[in-house]
Amino acid sequence: MKKYCFGIDVGGTTVKCSLFLNDGTSVDKWEIKTHVEDEGKQILPDIAETVLAKIQEKGLDKGEIEGIGIGVPGPVEESGEIACAVNLHWGRKNIEKELEDMTGLRVKAGNDANVAALGEMWKGGGQGAKNLILVTLGTGVGGGIIINEKIVTGAHGAGGEIGHAPVNPEEKVPCNCGNKGCLEQYASATGIARLARKALEETDSPSALRKYPDVTAKDVFDAYKEGDELAEEVVEVFSEYIGRALAAFTCVTDPDVIVLGGGVSKAGQPLIDCVEKYYRNYAFPTCKETPIRLATLGNDAGVYGAAKLVLNK
Amino acid sequence: MKKYCFGIDVGGTTVKCSLFLNDGTSVDKWEIKTHVEDEGKQILPDIAETVLAKIQEKGLDKGEIEGIGIGVPGPVEESGEIACAVNLHWGRKNIEKELEDMTGLRVKAGNDANVAALGEMWKGGGQGAKNLILVTLGTGVGGGIIINEKIVTGAHGAGGEIGHAPVNPEEKVPCNCGNKGCLEQYASATGIARLARKALEETDSPSALRKYPDVTAKDVFDAYKEGDELAEEVVEVFSEYIGRALAAFTCVTDPDVIVLGGGVSKAGQPLIDCVEKYYRNYAFPTCKETPIRLATLGNDAGVYGAAKLVLNK
């Protein structure tokens, strides 16, 4: 009887590893360094080595192990191949096959943002849902779409690339992706800081934000909670962009729940309240009550989701 | 061995019926009247009667028949129930169970717009694709989302309600759904006519469109093909709205193909060319080359999709 599974989340600096019972109970959790040098050719062997060492350390039998789920920062195709992962210095690579050959265990790979969505559905803010949209508000804006408990990968691995939904045709400054007016330009930590700088430049109104030489998203939300008027304006603009974008996404997939994660979501319930106000204004009538919740797994969403990925099939 | 299936498409005026071989070959095609009086209570019995009569007429054995797929104008839940279908005067009803009881055949029900998407994927403009977005540009704007050959129904049956994606926060006039600035307000036949009336009012420039007391979407596209400048402006505005909305939808599900159907799509390739120009401008880089094609099944998309629905499981 299979009892255990591994969840691996590969980042540009560290690889997060977890050993789970198949019901999602965490048995052990550790990290190893990501060796990106030499086109990252050591990354998968390092993972194989640490997994095999853990099996030995815990005295497990391979027959008890469902497999290894792995999330990586890049678009993973249905075949388990990745075209490239810039942060890992990888070119085309069949992650599943390589790691299976090295470990003798079944491997299932997915894009890290999509995998995080699966984790939040399984054990996080979206627990109990089968259909979910996760929006990760970090340095950039990522996301993951879950339909019937499965990740939507898409034809080019771009399923859930919702940070690049066009939300402002008037924008003059290009996004990292080359387009102009992407959601990420307003709803990321960087985007909020930019909105704040713009607001500070455009008015002379007093604001606690003026004391920061380099205002951050956290500063904006802290000032917002203190009732700072200019911070309020910034949060309203940000929330309208994201609430309106969510309204467009929900009339595509109509999820049970929307989950907001990433660093910006540390602003907590005030963030949800403000985004929800705009979401409800724009959402299709039958979707207006779709709950918007905070992600709860933080940096562990990836290992949970990776484990669920290999349990899913 | 099962060999046949029925595809039924229920509209407010007629019920379209088709008998197919399971490979999609049409064996017979007919229509009956939709009796909406008395809360439409005769609709399902009429369908059962015509299906059973056809089985007898063709000398078929029920054992040879996979079942009946049926598309209805309303949100169908996973259970086969519908909460309401305004055009059929229906309240809550379990379509699948009722029609199964009446015919002794397996029944699978779906929303008509979603079912049409499945039809276009199976035998129409999206043939060969597993992931598709259908946008139906008719009196309103409907749609259907297919992922891995399955309809995305959503938590409230609102999957594919893309006509109500918010695309213009500046809009003052309400949409039929009660919100303001929905895609349908610009990209439907009614929406295009409204854009044309607005353009005619706002300028004095000469245009062939001035001769129509009540300008229609068809008039606009006819004049566009003749090089009428004002019609060109209107088509550009319309195409920007739809191209930009498609760019947002594709970063959610990343389909293999986008299919445009409905009455407005009769404008043909010039419509595709103009929408594609804006789509490519706004789409996420890896999705820029996603093909946009014309629907090819016209009013038959519903019966094909309904048949595929019952073949799917």
From TrEMBL, chains A, B:
Q: Which GO terms describe its molecular function?
A: ATP binding; glucokinase activity
Transmembrane portions of the chain: none
Question: What InterPro entries does the record point to?
Answer: ATPase_NBD (IPR043129), ROK (IPR000600), ROK_cs (IPR049874), ROK_glcA (IPR004654)
Which Gene Ontology terms describe the biological processes this protein takes part in?
A: glycolytic process
One cellular component term (GO) for this entry is:
cytoplasm
Q: What is its EC number?
A: 2.7.1.2
Family annotation (Gene3D superfamilies): 3.30.420.40
Highest rank taxon of the organism: Bacteria
Family classification: Belongs to the ROK (NagC/XylR) family.
What protein am I looking at?
Glucokinase
